[in-house]
C-alpha cells in the first residue's frame, strides 16, 4: 500500500509539473518508467494474491491513463485452468477468442486435462495459430501435446487467412474460435478452414449452416459459409470458406418464445465406399419420428442411427425450448459480448454450457443468471439463460 501511495503521489506531481526542456521531460519519463517496472517486479515477486496484485496494478496506473506505455505495463495476463468443468478444447477456444477480442494476454494451463489424450491436438493447434495470425499476436508453448500456452494478442486485422488441421479435425470447431474474433476485426475477413466437415463430437457443417447460422445472425452477425468439399474421418480433406463482415457491436437476443413447429426435415448421406442403401436405411428408420442429422458410426446398424437421431430431436422438442442442447453453449460468447440483456429458452443446462458461462464470467464482466421457466408451456426441464453483456465495441468502426 505504501509503495502504491508513493508512486501515485509521484505521478500526480509529475502530471502537474512543467518542463523547461525536452531533455528534462525524457529524463523524468524514463525514471518513472523504471520505477514502475521495479514496483511491478516487486508485486509479481512478493504478492501471492492475484486479486491484490491486480488492485495494486490498477492503483499505480490510475494517474497514467494518458500514457499508453504505462497502460501496457499495467496490463495483467489472465490465467485459465483448462482442467475445470468440461475440461476439453472448449475452454481453450473460448479463452483464446476472448483474449483476442479484449486485447488481453492469457495463459492457459492443464489444457484438455479431462481427456484421454490431454494437451493440444492438431486441430487445437491450428485454431490457436489462426487466431494468432488474425491478431498479429505472439503464441508461446503451442505444440502438439503441449498442456500450457500463452497468447499475447495485437489488433485484429481482416483479410485472408487459412487454417488446415491436416486431419479430420473439425472445421466447425475452427469456426468457433475464429468467428467471434473476425467480428471485431479492422475489416472484412475471409477464412479458409480445412479438415473434417462431418466429424463425431463436433458440430456438423450441416448443423452450422441450418441451425447455428440463422440464430447467431440475430446478434447482428453477418457471414457467408461456402462448403467447398466435405471431409470425413480419418483423412479429412474438407474445405469451408467463411466470409465475415465486422460489426461495431453485437445486439442482444431474446429467444424466449418458440412458436409452432411447421416443418421437420433431415439429411442422411454416405461417403467413400459405403453403399447408398445405408443412407436410405437411416432415413427409413427415422421417418417414424422426426429426423435429425447424425453420424453413422463404425459397426453401428444404419436403422439404429436413424432411430437415435429421431429420438435426439424429440428429446429437444419436449422441453419446449428455443434452442437445443448443442446450440446452448455456442451462443454463450455472443451473449457475453452483446450490448444489453440477452435471454434464451432451453432445456437442461449442459456441462458445455456451464463451462462456457464460467469462462465468459472469468474473462469478462458479463453476468449470467439461470432460472426455471414458469410460463404455461414450461415443464421441469425448461430453463431461461439470461446474460447482461459487456457491450464490446469494435474500435476500428
Automatic annotation (TrEMBL):
It catalyses: a 3'-end 3'-phospho-ribonucleotide-RNA + ATP = a 3'-end 2',3'-cyclophospho-ribonucleotide-RNA + AMP + diphosphate. It comes from the Eukaryota. One of its GO terms (cellular component) is nucleus. GO terms for biological process: RNA processing. GO terms for molecular function: RNA-3'-phosphate cyclase activity. PROSITE patterns: RTC. CDD domains: RNA_Cyclase_Class_II (cd00874). Its EC number is 6.5.1.4. InterPro entries: RNA3'_phos_cyclase_dom (IPR023797), RNA3'_phos_cyclase_dom_sf (IPR037136), RNA3'_term_phos_cyc (IPR000228), RNA3'_term_phos_cyc_type_1 (IPR017770), RNA3'_term_phos_cycl-like_CS (IPR020719), RNA3'P_cycl/enolpyr_Trfase_a/b (IPR013792), RPTC_insert (IPR036553). It is an enzyme of class 6 (ligase). Residues 85-370 form the RNA 3'-terminal phosphate cyclase domain. Catalyzes the conversion of 3'-phosphate to a 2',3'-cyclic phosphodiester at the end of RNA. The mechanism of action of the enzyme occurs in 3 steps: (A) adenylation of the enzyme by ATP; (B) transfer of adenylate to an RNA-N3'P to produce RNA-N3'PP5'A; (C) and attack of the adjacent 2'-hydroxyl on the 3'-phosphorus in the diester linkage to produce the cyclic end product. Likely functions in some aspects of cellular RNA processing. Function plays an important role in regulating axon regeneration by inhibiting central nervous system (CNS) axon regeneration following optic nerve injury. This is RNA 3'-terminal phosphate cyclase.
